């Protein structure tokens, strides 16, 4: 990089910090994500703004509003860092895939099986770093649109995006209740009866909620929503406390006997779907991503059969 260009756009680290602040939405969140202090993040952004000669953002209340100069720098920073990453991947390929970074972003429920999949892969390639992001469905869609990761794991693919997709494994959503709940002892439960119970549901933007709302709309029924809860674990504990019934992925109930949660045989359930790995067709896969995809399509399915029994 020429010294003149360097003076205008700052260091690679400053660009990484700028992107983190843009993606996280605040200096506090960015500092936590980067394991830096807030003063360090602020100082680096100040130096970057001084090098550019224009302000990068403005503080509006508690939110940051990026200026035109800031947005232009963010766009360029993404390209620069992506090009550097592609170079690193190419060099890794020449070195025999001994180093580099694989970036995976998955919806929250997928966190129960992705680590089982990554274990053997990392044993094969111990020099590879893994960046593993877990968020709700809408947040993962946002990351996909920004092109932040190599692969995105969904059970319900986003519409309107040109994606390459491979289906990986089933993801059935089942009705659950506390083991001593009146419905838990019945051989079968009508959907109408189930909808009369207090219902615990995931937050807006969740893939589980997306599937549940689609199911009830098709069945022309409405659950009696009592609570909106932003985690599967919190829903399970709320069910245990007899605050209501719910519908969750069977993957969350791998240890259902320990939790004391029982699956209910409700009319029309389970809601059936498939876990899928997806990526943008327009973006070429790095050497590491290509090797991981090959692993998923071959060994990966067998690894999951042995590791997790649902």
Give a written overview of the molecule.
This protein has helices spanning 3-9, 12-24, 27-34, 38-52, 68-94, 114-124, 137-146, 191-195, 207-219, 232-240, 256-259, 287-307; strands at residues 57-60, 63-66, 100-107, 128-135, 151-154, 163-170, 173-178, 198-202, 224-229, 245-249, 261-264, 274-280. With 310 residues, it is an alpha/beta fold. The strands form three sheets. The protein has a five-stranded mixed beta sheet with strand order 4-3-5-12-6. Strands 9-8-10-7-11 form a five-stranded mixed beta sheet, sandwiched between helices. Strand 8, helix 9 (207-219) and strand 9 form a beta-alpha-beta unit. It is globular.
Ends apart, CA distance between termini: 52 Å
Mean pLDDT: 88
Given helix and strand content, the structural type is alpha/beta
Poorly predicted regions: 1-9
Query: Number of DSSP strands?
Result: 12
N-to-C SSE series?
A: HHHHEEHEHEHEEEHEHEHEHEEH
| Strand order of the biggest β-sheet | 4-3-5-12-6
Tally of helical segments: 12
Shape: globular
How would you classify the quaternary structure?
single chain
The helical percent reads 40-55%
What is the CA-based Rg, rounded? 23 Å
Major sheet characteristics: 5 strands, mixed
Strand content: 15-25%
Q: Topology, pairings included?
A:
Layout: H1 3-9, H2 12-24, H3 27-34, H4 38-52, E1 57-60, E2 63-66, H5 68-94, E3 100-107, H6 114-124, E4 128-135, H7 137-146, E5 151-154, E6 163-170, E7 173-178, H8 191-195, E8 198-202, H9 207-219, E9 224-229, H10 232-240, E10 245-249, H11 256-259, E11 261-264, E12 274-280, H12 287-307
Parallel strand pairs: 3-4, 3-5, 8-9, 8-10
Antiparallel strand pairs: 1-2, 5-12, 6-12, 7-10, 7-11
Helix pairs in contact: 2-3, 2-4, 2-5, 3-4, 6-12
């Amino acid at each position: 990089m020429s010294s003149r260009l360097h003076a205008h756009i700052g260091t690679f680290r400053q660009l990484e910090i700028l992107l983190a602040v843009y993606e996280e939405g605040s200096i506090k969140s960015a500092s936590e994500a980067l394991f830096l202090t807030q003063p360090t993040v602020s100082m680096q952004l100040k130096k970057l703004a001084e090098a550019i000669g224009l302000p990068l953002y403005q503080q509006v209340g508690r939110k940051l509003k990026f200026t035109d100069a800031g947005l232009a720098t963010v766009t360029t920073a993404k390209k620069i860092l992506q090009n550097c990453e592609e170079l690193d991947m190419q060099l890794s390929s020449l070195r025999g895939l001994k180093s580099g970074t694989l970036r995976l972003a998955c919806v929250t429920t997928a966190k129960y099986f992705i680590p089982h999949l990554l274990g053997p892969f990392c044993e094969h390639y111990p020099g590879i770093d893994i960046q593993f992001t877990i968020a709700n469905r809408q947040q993962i869609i946002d990351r996909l649109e920004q092109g932040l990761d190599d692969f995105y794991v969904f059970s319900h693919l986003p519409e309107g995006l040109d994606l390459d997709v491979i289906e990986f494994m089933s993801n059935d959503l089942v009705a659950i209740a506390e083991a001593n709940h009146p419905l838990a002892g019945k051989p079968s439960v009508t959907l109408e009866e189930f909808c009369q119970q207090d219902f615990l549901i995931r937050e807006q933007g969740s893939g589980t909620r997306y599937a549940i709302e689609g199911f009830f709309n098709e069945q022309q029924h409405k659950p009696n929503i009592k609570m909106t809860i932003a985690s599967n674990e919190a829903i399970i504990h709320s069910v245990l406390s007899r605050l209501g019934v719910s519908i969750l992925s069977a993957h969350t109930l791998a240890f259902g006997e320990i939790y004391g949660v029982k699956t209910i045989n409700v009319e029309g359930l389970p809601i059936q779907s498939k876990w899928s790995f997806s990526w943008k067709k327009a973006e070429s896969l790095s050497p590491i991503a290509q090797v991981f995809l090959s692993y998923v399509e071959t060994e990966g399915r067998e690894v999951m059969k042995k590791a997790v029994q649902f």
